[in-house]
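Predict the 3D structure for this chain.
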Amino acid sequence: MADRPPAEPAADPVADAPFTPYSALHGRQAQMFPTLTDEELERIARFGRLQRHAAGSRLFAAGEPGPGMFVLLSGEVAITQRDGLGRVTPVATQGRGQFLAEVGQLSGRPALVDGHALSEVEALLIPPEQLRALIIAEADLGERLVRALILRRVALIESGGSGPVLIGSPGGHLLLQLQGFLARNGQPHHAVDPADDAVAAALVRQYDAGPGDVVVVCPNGAVLVNPGEAGLARCLGMVGTAEFDDDYDVAIVGAGPAGLATAVYAASEGLRVAVLDCRAHGGQAGASARIENYLGFPTGISGQALAGRAFVQAQKFGAEMLIPAEAAALDCAGPGHPGAPLAIRLTDGRLLRSRTVVIASGARYRRPEVPGLAQFEGRGVSYWASALEARGCAQAEVALVGGGNSAGQAAVFLSQHASRVFMLVRGPGLAATMSRYLIDRIAASPRIELLTRTELTGLHGDESQGLKAASWRHRDSGEATTREVRGVFLFVGAEPETRWLAGCGVALDAHGFVLTGQGGAPSPLAASVPGVFAVGDVRSGSVKRVGGAIGEGAAVVAAIHQHLAASAAAA
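Done. Predicted structure below.
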């Protein structure tokens, strides 16, 4: 990793540039940039502290930890995007009654834009903890604020003018991996092909990057070459490195629907909550292109959108999100803190102590025994079907392996982009594993060809261009087929993510799922170790549905309260 100083905007970067509002969500400008009334400003005043800023001074900068939300009482502030290569784009000019923040300021995340005073400014600064208190105490006003904060983040993502710049050849393995990581975490970013941009090409030469390498310029000016997801996350300020000094009431491992539901209910009831996930919020449900049988969404909702709403909701109530942060081990022996007898050891060596632990680590898709599979993962083979992969398969043929609901949702989604989707299923049909509405939709699609009793047998391609073709075989007739395909998507069952529990004594079933409610346990969601609970797909006997996972996340909070009360009484 090499560093360089951040690009400084000019004193007035919008003076000679035309006003350019967010092009994304253009029809919702009034919701994104509302003006508060004098009465609303008075209601807000008790949550902030008065500040004054001279003309030309900077209130916040992209890539630096945000101080909170600024509410303007007088003067004007220019909001600009800075892309890491020093190029500045005006976003908006805001004045009295308007507020400066996006959803990351609920938890003090680094700012995504620059804000500097065009004139002398008087403002209320509302730090993250007070912003959360404001949103909860002033429900009607809080609803408008949260909507605006979310819409601003969405617009920044869609505009592609904020966040890190990823410089690399389009379609490269690492570039796609980093783009997918940032997209799943709701992080604005954009990719630049050095063949089309002289500044990007100069950086590639400066850092001696090869044809398949990726150079990343973070908003704070730091430059990384071929970073991993964890390294990129640290550069963006997504995760910290400081030790955890305080004990938590609840530590949740896994930010899928079950973990997020637990976080929302526990934090809303005043418990101190930490949520860990090794990659992104959403879990396997985040890979669902559209969930149409979830209660309350008659037109359906994507798994990523559902998880994104829950992610914001948990932060609204004060849950601390540690993503990406991976649990390496659970210490059940008592790490020397009587008030927090459990501890989670992270892969970075840090120790997080908690009075209770909720295992919501879910399950991962299995990797079938296919020659060359590892060679093509991320280079044509995917376990996830997002808009990024769909664009790469436009008007081309793809193969999809699996017969569950996630596979069906992915097949329907991909059929809107690919010329043909070959759906490979080992069994005689879909009725035993898939919801009826998806079966009917697959049957009605002229672009989906269902191949039953068929298994994937081979992948073909090369190092430079990735996957080019795939082979499959009918299990009864033995007939073999090889087709040129742009991608292979695998949704072939799941294995529990419980390796990090080894050595702690948490009882597992024969397949590695967590046993709960055994031998007079105080709750049907309680594991074999006191204070440890399991919810969602990782739990033995769970229904493996989003609705069921969310229900378990809500139910486990009552059991957590009972355990905490019993522990306090025994102390």
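The two ends are 49 Å apart (CA to CA).
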